[in-house]
Every structure is written in C-alpha cells, then in structure tokens.
Design brief:
There is one protein chain. The protein is of the alpha/beta class and 409 residues long. The chain folds into 2 domains: 200 residues, 3-Layer(aba) Sandwich (Rossmann fold); 189 residues, Glycogen Phosphorylase B (Rossmann fold), CATH 3.40.50. Helices cover 36% and strands 17% of the residues. The protein is built from 14 helices and 15 strands.
Length: 409
C-alpha cells in the first residue's frame, strides 16, 4: 500500500507504526511535515512551509483557525505537487490538531483520511477552570469554544478518526463519536521494562549521584508547568525532604510551555524555585531539563516512587512507559489518569493540587515496601494486558483495513 502521513513534527505519534509498516517491506511511505532533523530510513519526507504568525489585528478567537487554514493550504500545495509526480496514496493518516489534513480530500477525492482526534475543548468540566490558583477570565471563555473550529471542520470531512483513551473519546459530543475509533496507545514492553539490578548500582546524571541506599523520587513531564502539576510537586518538596534524609528527587522536563499560560519574565521552573528558595535542601533535588531516552529509562527503572500529575487533560506517553517499567506511581485524582491508575492496585491516587497530600502519599510508598512491590507488579501487569505496543499496532492495522478495504499483507 501507499501511505501518506501528515504531521507538523515528523514523525509525531507515528514512529512505531511507520517502523512496523517498513519492516514488512510491502509499503511505500511518504510523510509531509515541517523541516526537522529527525530521520527514518525508508520514509520519503516532503516539507511544507509553516504559516507566519497571525497578524496582530486578527481577532484572538480566530487566530488558530487562520493558522490552520494556512497550514491546510500549504500542505495541499505540496500534495498537488506529489500528485503531479505520480504519487497517489491509498490512505492518508495524520493529526487533525493543526488543520493540515483539511484540504487533502480536495486533492485526492475518495482517498480515506484516518485522522487523530486528540482533544475537544470545553469551558468547564475538564482543564479550563480546574485550578483555582489560575482562574479564567470569563471574557476568554468564547476563546475556548473557538478552539474547536478545527475539530469541527475535521469532523465535517466525514472521514475516519481515532483517539487513544476512552476519556478523550468522551470529550467529543455524542453525535461525533460514531466515527472516532478507540485505539489505545502502547509502550515497547521489551524496552520499557523493569531492571531488577537498577537499585544495586549508582545512578549518575552529571554531577548528581543517587546511591544504592538513597530513595529516589522521580517526576517527568515534557515541560515543567502547572498543567502537569509541577507547582504541586515543587511545593511537596519541603515536607518530603524534611521527613527523610535519604530522599533524592529528579524532576525531568523542559522550560518551554506545552499547555496553558506562559509567564512574562521567567520560566515556571524559575518561578517556583524562587517561591520555595531556602525551604528545602536543593542539593538533593535535580532539574536536568529533558534527558536522552536511554537515560530517562534508567531513571524510571531506578525510581522508588514516580509521580505523575496532570489537570484533566490528555495523558502523557511517560505515564504509559512508567507503568511498563513497573514504577510505583502516585498519580493525580483526575479521570484521564484514573483510566490507567487504580488506587491500591496499579498505583496510588492523590489530589493534583494538594502538596501535603502528595508528600504523604510519596512517603507511604517509600516506607511500605510490600505496598510498593504490589503496585510495581500491578503497573507492569496492567501494561502487559493493555499497553503492549504489539496490540496497538495490530489494532491500527485493523483500522486501516477497515477504512481502505485492503489487506496489508
């Protein structure tokens, strides 16, 4: 089959699927994206030019729509060039979030589009207004609704969709769910796996050393920001570090902002480090930024307690990988996290916004070895049953067969 993938940041969510398709040796794969340094041998990459920033005088409610329309136009231009060169895909696969797919049915009428529907925005009941520390100006609520314009345009294509969790599926209106298939995302269980020897050897990240007798608490997010509970994690440190002298903490994440608001004059890391200056032993806390993948995995394998916090929002791949590694996890008491973490069986649940409760839950897992071992085994077992990448790829293949009517053999 001939596959066309589209995602502004190659390879996006499709790394494992593409490698799986390439391994069969039966498929031609073209990928439209903006330029970056990533590379997968066997994939023909085609670049499009991303839109310039929207003009200042455009209404904020249509800024995202304007950018999406320009992306759609640019991608369609590249697609027409491909068509002129003789490439006609059997299926188009991509992420609907940025509008890149919107004009492709006009370029290739009748070619099925399988699009990732990631998140339907609502002004209440999920991330918006969840955290009272950061109240939402009521005048901005219309902006929240307008963020669904690209979603709604994608749905109007009357094509095919997928999303990875039941919680994400149920964010969409009931009338829209019929053509969005639940395709759970997985982890590579033979890569993300427990290492029984990890606690017996020192772990070093630069000059920061974790010895075999130290208790290691870990936290991972793409970026250190309130949406992923970074403020709660930071504010738990004074109590946590005062309670145990053997605890060391590593907080992994960058200084950009993936979700939510930015500060004008500093990063969220700098903001909360300034707020808590002198209140905890900073020599026992490392904020290394983002880590290479192999180092990140070793960190999870060595972790004594792993913290995953989030507003009611899309669950991260790091949660799936932490479960596959068999971490003893403290997770946020929000529905997208509880779809993975069952309190007392695959982890412990705590409030995303309560630092004292978080510190107490972490200490429970550090002190109760039997519970810690039970939760580790439960997390790994859940991953083996529900998060196996092989199952994910098989389900994706079945969806491709369903929408194309063609075998991948």
């Amino acid at each position: 089959m001939r596959f066309l993938f589209v995602h502004q940041n190659f390879p996006g969510q499709y790394l494992h699927l593409i490698k799986h398709l390439l391994a069969s040796g039966r498929h031609e794969i073209v990928f439209i994206a903006q330029p970056n340094a990533n590379n997968i041998p066997g994939v023909r990459r085609v670049f499009y030019e991303g839109p310039k920033p929207a003009p200042d005088n455009i209404h904020p409610n249509v800024r995202d729509t304007e950018q999406a329309a320009r992306r759609a136009e640019s991608v369609a231009h590249v697609a027409r060039t491909l068509k002129g060169l003789g490439f006609n895909p059997d299926i188009i696969i991509g992420h609907h979030g940025w509008g890149e797919l919107l004009d492709l049915p006009d370029v290739w009428p009748g070619v099925p589009v399988l699009g990732y529907f990631e998140f339907y925005y609502r002004k209440d009941g999920q991330d918006v207004g969840f955290d009272p520390e950061f109240p939402v100006d009521p005048r901005l609520l219309s902006r929240v609704r307008s963020m669904n314009v690209v979603n709604l345009l994608a749905l109007s294509l009357e094509q095919y969709g997928h999303t990875p969790t039941r919680w994400q599926l149920e964010r969409y209106p009931e009338w829209a769910r019929g053509n969005i298939k639940l395709l759970p995302e997985g982890a590579l269980l033979d890569v993300c796996k427990p290492d029984p020897k990890a606690h017996a050897r020192p772990l070093e990240i630069g000059d920061f050393k974790v010895g075999p007798k130290d208790k290691l608490v870990t936290y991972v997010a793409r970026n250190l920001e309130p949406y992923r509970g970074f403020h709660t994690m930071m504010r738990s440190l004074p109590a946590l570090l005062a309670a145990r002298r053997d605890v060391k903490v590593v907080l992994v994440g960058g200084d950009d902002v993936s979700y939510g608001a930015r500060l004008h004059n500093m990063t969220w890391r700098e903001h909360f480090q300034k707020e808590l200056a002198g209140r905890y032993d900073a020599s026992r806390v490392l904020l290394p930024g983002q880590l290479p993948y192999d180092q990140y995995l070793r960190l999870l394998q060595r972790s004594d307690t792993h913290v995953y916090l989030s507003y009611p929002f899309v669950a991260s791949w790091s949660l799936r990988e932490a479960m596959a590694v068999g971490c003893a996890i403290v997770g946020a008491d929000v529905d997208p996290v509880k779809e993975f973490i069952t309190d007392g069986r695959t982890g412990l649940i705590t409030s995303c916004l309560d630092p004292a409760a978080l510190a107490e839950r972490i200490q429970t897992l550090l002190e109760d070895g039997k519970l810690n071992a039970t939760l580790r085994a439960g997390a790994r077992r859940h991953a083996e049953r529900h998060l196996d990448m092989k199952q994910h790829l098989a389900a994706f293949e079945a969806r491709i067969r369903e929408v194309t009517g063609r075998s991948l053999k």
